[in-house]
Amino acid sequence: MDNRTPLKKGLFDEKDGGRLHGNQCATCKRVYFPPAPFCYDCLGREMEEIILSRRGKLYSYTIGRMPSTHFEPPYALGLIDLPEGVRVFAPLIMTEDERYRIGMEMELMIDELWQEEDQHIVAYRFKPVS
Amino acid sequence: MRDVAVIGIGQSAFGKFPWRTAADLGADAVRAAFSDCGISPKAIEVAYCARAFDASCTAQDVLKEVGIRGIEMINVENACAGGATSLRGLWKEIADGRHDVGIAVGVESMTTSPIAGKLIPPEKSDIEGHLGLTMPAMFGMVARRQMAQGARIEDFAQVSVKNHHNGCLNPQAQYKKEFSVEDVLQSRMICDPITLLMCCPNTDGAAAVILCSMDVAKRYTTQPIRIMASALCSADYKYTQEDICLSPVGQKVATMAYEMAGVEPKDIDLVEMHDAFANEEILRYEDLMLCEPGEGIRLLRSGATALGGRIPVNPSGGLLALGHPLSASGIRTVCEIVLHLRGQAGARQVPGATVGLAQMLGGLVSNLEHGTVAGVHILAR
């Protein structure tokens, strides 16, 4: 399994079916994903790491019908609102019926999303809660 | 602050010309601007030039083709608002009294750029770009939200029908072809529900404007067009954009421009704007306060934004029919407003136009609002 490379370190881990790492300003409590180096809002420097909820609501979505940098069509993309107050852009799993709808309950998964030379790039995506 | 006037406008052909250099296209626009106002290139004291892709001393490269050298030249990049940024830079020089006469150019060769034939991605280092975010994907997701608020896919198609119709009346449009709502809906799907004919094409082209102080303008023309407002601003962090259908920075810049011009949205006779995607035009009606919040769809359906309507939007054909050479569009839209204010817009002329507004919005940067920079210019005769 040493040919698995995370898209970026410190964004997620694979415990409990996958977890996104955010952070929160100790002063004004604003939550960030990806983690922010300081609070963009109040400029506070004390940031606390938090693990974000695995489930959220689909804010919007689209199905790509032209290739993007790493995905061949069709591929699904969406914005997911997590209960902590962050909106995450992420690929969605491509379901056969493509029946995504706004407000749908979604769940995080960590997956190998594409390959670069001999490396499998691992990142996050969401699937509908079954 | 001094009054500043547009005295010369010029545009190159817009189309796919991979065999032409940016300097070559830019020089066409600049030559057209000089023949429009009849002044000598030697009168130019300062130049601004916008280009987004493969830029390296583009102002110098373009202007050497018309004999301009040895003056201060400033090159800028600001995504789709590059042209508006270059115009504003020049406006400031003249309004502040630093110079009397200058030229602003916007040029882009999209067909030779690294993104030719691709969906425009965010910056390479952006995680979201790697995960599949592109401009059409963003506007596909925006469109889904609009539809959840009552828009129909036919509304988006109608914007494309309207702007392509206008393009048929513009000799400089890349696409002069009428399309029906059916044609638009049946064209190839790009990012659901955005179809090919709802996307502006990749296009090469350039545009230029010559500005001078109002007192100097009177030496050269009996028809100076006054710049009533020049406003440009960058966006806030993304968490401030709770509704992706609204552009906080777009609203802010519109407000700044109306205040500076001392006019209200109802005083505007025509608008040229960033319709990179058909559904986007409807959102921008609301940012620019052409209607009440939430009334964009109703404004479109009423026909008010078509030629002959209360407030024609994109009478040129917009980015949808002209194409979108990124940095050229912000200058090209101003050229179009000037034509209408002079009464020279031919078959697409907005009758009796006295005040026009040119808007640009662009840029996709992780962690910031989508639409990362906005620019608005208001012009009057």
Strand order of the largest sheet of chain B: 3-2-4-7-1-8-11-10-9
Find the CATH superfamily of the largest domain in chain B: Thiolase/Chalcone synthase
Helix content of chain A: under 10%
Low-pLDDT regions of chain B: none
Strand content of chain A: over 45%
Number of distinct helices of chain A: 0
The span between the termini of chain A is 28 Å
For the largest interface, the chains and their residue counts are: A-B, 32 and 31 residues
What spatial form of chain A do the alpha-carbon principal axes imply? Answer: globular
Rg result of chain A: 16 Å
Report the helical percentage of chain B.
25-40%
Q: How would you characterize the overall build of this protein?
A:
The complex is a heterodimer of chains A (130) and B (381). With 130 residues, chain A is mainly beta. Chain A has one domain (4-128). Chain A contains no helices and ten strands. Chain A has strands at residues 4-6, 12-13, 19-25, 31-32, 47-51, 55-64, 75-81, 87-92, 105-116, 119-128. Chain A has a six-stranded mixed sheet with strand order 1-10-9-6-7-8, with no helix packed on it. In chain A, strands 2, 3, 4 and 5 form a four-stranded antiparallel sheet that branches. Chain A is globular, with a radius of gyration of 16 Å. The two termini of chain A are 28 Å apart. The mean pLDDT of chain A is 94. With 381 residues, chain B is an alpha/beta fold. Chain B has two domains: 4-114 and 203-224, Peroxisomal Thiolase, Chain A, domain 1 (3-Layer(aba) Sandwich), CATH 3.40.47.10; 127-200 and 229-380, Thiolase/Chalcone synthase (Peroxisomal Thiolase, Chain A, domain 1), CATH 3.40.47. Chain B is built from 13 helices and eleven strands. In chain B, the strands form two sheets. Chain B has a nine-stranded mixed sheet. Chain B has a two-stranded antiparallel sheet with strand order 5-6. In chain B, strand 5 and strand 6 form a beta hairpin. The radius of gyration of chain B is 19 Å and the shape is globular. The interface between A and B is medium-sized, with 32 and 31 residues.
